[in-house]
Design brief:
Length: 361
């Protein structure tokens, strides 16, 4: 199959990465992502790939994210790109299987069918550097690249870590309440959804909704705020069956938790900042502790939504539930962002390696 794909890539100038290739049986299309994470759709025969041709490849501003639950029900979300790529006005909006424009923060359910099953919004595929996040302040909370001091934000490659070392994202319908003082960390919440690090082997796609199970959490203290970093794994990963708690990660993936701790400790140091601090002396807490954090922050989110009033500059507009946004207004929010177009190429500076020394080393 990949020999055919390589021919297509060459004839259409797609920088094909097979890690980003999958076949969507439901719509009978082969979906490819190129090296810039732009999506290409190829209609294919359900019985094989011999009918592939370069004429059938076209760039698309949308792609599908389909998650398979334990009871075989399908939930699907379509991701729509708007604006100019590699710019501050680039946005990724979400639609559900009814083609409703939705908020990934407020409308995608936290809980998935089954015990310890949750939906994760992928903001940043592993090995990549562009710091995307759910824009909590904008209506319908599209994904957007973080901007700092007027420049798009990219995470540095701090040796030996290339970009993000996990699929990084957030749990929907959770909120770290900035008015809540955590009794364990002695710090308030950071006003964001819970951050999650998906440690499976697959490179996910930006905007993908992935079913995960929780294994544990680090407690990063970021500029005086509690910033939980949940360790999770895709329920369809080959290791998912043997990873059920944080100690299993150390057994099956020795060194990975230490690498994750180091990543969070040093990733801001190339900007001249000191190493980050952690609660619990940097040790990760286990599954049961992490699950309590998930439910606590879910309750904070329910209070936020239930109040009907924006708090901490959080937009609570959504397309489902009480006070749902009218479809026409939701569409107007999307159309206020220009159609998708290519932007200037990303600077090669993001490929630079940085080397740091921790105090005491």
């Amino acid at each position: 199959m990949f020999s055919n794909l390589t021919k297509i890539a060459r004839s259409t100038k797609i920088a094909l990465n097979p890690s980003y290739c999958y076949y969507n049986i439901k719509i009978k299309q082969l979906l490819l992502l190129d090296s810039t994470l732009c999506c290409f759709k190829i209609p294919v025969s359900a019985v094989g790939f011999h009918n592939l041709s370069s004429n059938s490849v076209k760039q698309s501003p949308t792609y599908s994210s389909v998650i398979q639950s334990n009871n075989s029900k399908m939930a699907s979300f379509t991701v729509e790109e708007r604006g100019e790529r590699n710019s501050s006005n680039y946005r990724v909006f979400f639609r559900n299987d009814k083609n409703q424009i939705i908020s990934p923060f407020h409308d995608v359910p936290l809980h998935a069918p089954g015990k310890n099953r949750f939906n994760m919004i992928v903001e940043i595929p592993k090995w990549s550097n562009a710091k995307f996040e759910i824009n909590t302040k904008e209506p319908l909370n599209p994904l957007a690249q973080d901007v700092k001091k007027g420049k798009l934000r990219f995470v540095h490659n701090v040796f030996p870590h290339k970009g993000y070392i996990w699929n990084y994202g957030a749990l929907p319908q959770t909120w770290e309440d900035p008015t809540h003082l955590d009794t364990a960390t002695k710090c308030n919440g950071d006003n964001d959804p819970l951050d999650v690090c998906e440690i499976g082997q697959r490179v996910a796609r930006r905007g993908e909704v992935v079913q995960v199970k929780v294994l544990g959490t680090f407690a990063l203290i970021d500029e005086g705020e509690t910033d939980w970093k949940l360790i999770v794994i895709d329920v369809n990963d080959p290791l998912a069956g043997v990873l059920n708690d944080i100690q299993d990660v150390e057994r099956e993936m020795p060194g990975f938790l230490a690498a994750s701790h180091e990543w969070f400790k040093i990733y801001k140091m190339p900007d001249g900042k000191p190493p980050n601090n952690f609660a619990f002396k940097g040790a990760p807490k286990g599954r049961d502790f992490a699950l309590k954090i998930v439910e606590e922050t879910h309750n904070f989110w329910k209070s936020l939504i239930g109040s009907g009033v924006s708090q901490g500059n959080i937009s609570i507009m959504r397309s489902t539930g009480d006070n749902a946004l009218a479809a026409e207004r939701a569409q107007a929010i999307v159309e206020a962002v220009p159609d998708i177009c290519d932007g200037v190429p990303v600077s090669s500076d993001i490929d630079k390696w940085h080397y740091v020394n921790l105090p005491g080393n």
